[in-house]
Amino acid sequence: MPRSLDRWLFITALALFTVLSVWGVATGHIPLGSAKGWGTLLAAGLTLAIYSFLYKDNPLFKFAEHVFIGVSMGYTLSQVWFNVVVNDVVTPLRNWSQTETWPLALIFISVVMGLLILFQISQSMSWVSRTPFAFVVGFGAGVGIPTVIAAFLLEQMRPSLAPLVADEQYAVLISVLLVGALAFAAKTEYLMDRSHRAVQIAIGVALASVVAWLGYGGHSNLLILVGVVSVLVYFFFSVEHTGTVGAISKVGIWFLMVAFGASFGFTIMARVSILIGRMRFLLGEWLPILG
Amino acid sequence: MIDRILNIDRRYIFAVIFVVVVWALMADRPIQVPISSPVQDVFDFMERVAQIDDHPPTILISFDYGPGSDAEVQPMALALLRHAFSKGVRVAGMCIWETAPGLAKAAFETVAPEFDKKYGDDYVFLGYKSGGIAVVLNMGQDFSLAFPADAYGNRTDTLATTARISRLADFDYVITLAAGNTIDQLWVAYGQDRYKINLGGGVTAVMAPDMFPFLQTGQLNGLIPGLAGAAEYEKLIEHPGEATAGMLAQSWTHIAIVLSIVFGNVAYFISRRRDREV
What we know:
The structure holds 2 protein chains of 2 kinds. Chain A has helices at about 5-25, 35-50, 60-95, 100-115, 130-160, 170-185, 195-215, 220-235, 245-285. Chain A is mainly α. Chain A has 3 domains: about 5-80, no CATH class; about 100-155, no CATH class; about 165-275, no CATH class. Chain B has 2 domains: about 1-30 and about 260-275, no CATH class; about 35-245, MTH777-like (Rossmann fold), CATH 3.40.50. In chain B, helix 4 (about 70-85) packs across helix 5 (about 100-110), helix 4 (about 70-85) packs parallel to helix 11 and helix 6 runs parallel beside helix 9 (about 180-195). The two termini of chain B are about 15 Å apart.
């Protein structure tokens, strides 16, 4: 792309932004008499500067990016200062006569421990910071390990081990059919041999249909069982993935692919939502287009 | 021709998405929003909380997001506040993310006047508190030690909304609106698992697939996922807002993306077959 074209595009975009902003102000949509009006103009300009990256990297984008980082850090610092340092440390210490002894002692210990961490920047005295770091690591491990095991491992195992009570006869029938189909496929090496692509696709479609039917019909326990077992087999690398193990691990791959697809779909939805939010701002608050 | 399609300048795709979004937003046609069960569960639980009669029902909303996820999560915050205030449920708001207080304040200041709610009596904003895990653990043991004062310096034991609250479990419902891992790493692990609170969530769509296992275990009793979830909640409270307004654009953009994926794959397979034949 020639530089002269970029320059013209830049000038055109700037002129367009100015004209549209003047239009917004002239129609009374952007009140310049208030901070909100100026804020809207600034936010619109920065939004467009950030979106200009979709064309290519440029100085406007860099400027907006640096402003964002600076403002974020400044805002964070102000929040921590006023909500934590002032509220939790300065005010209780200033009113020490009204504060109870034990909370006051806790604040004092916390402040001293926090200050000790700052010794990290000194080469000769950095050993002083080991004490608060040791406290943080010890506390984190002590609190975290049992909680993570209980909340994420044991709790998650419970529904994975749920009995297939609902519609038992269907569950058994489908289990037998699935295992039979997999065993047949494994024995005849249909799933492993590239020359039987049509059969593989047919089995895949059949299994996908069963999976969809199970999910739609609320037979999720069986679905979970098949999914958990097949994915675990896929991640079991001590045995060569051939024959029955290979066939089951292939089913595990399909489950993983469905999970990745769902995750990708939700990610697209999130990004589109953010775009919609910005476009609603540009068309509704900056320009008097949306009602 | 096929090679040109496969190597298309991505800026054309951006332009198509831009046109589709602008067209759909300007079209502003109503669209059917089916209610999913995780969103219905949050709504139903809030209704149950509103029926508590032995004490003033009080919920805690943790605003754990920032301006980057404002478009997705703020509509949830507005819808939840509207639901709570319309049913006479008191609300305490807090932030684990330092970028959230401005958004949380804006949500309260938007919705409270609609229902003529008074600060202190009907809602309280506790502000931002750093510490993550330590904050939740502290709240679980002694609420007034974690939040001796609200964001404006008022003592929490003197405000009607929080005067009854001595620990986290005293809240009838805790809802975390999250754009990061605070929902599972903090609230599920340390809040729900340790103190057995009733926990619901509202998350960005990116995070939603990771949250469904917690629904299955009951660690989360409901979930509002992304802008679509917010639109569902707006439909449940019969107050269409920004999320509902964005649904047509969301749907058409998804159609455009699906078509481009299909188109790209067809071109890819055609080119592969052609290369094999060559």
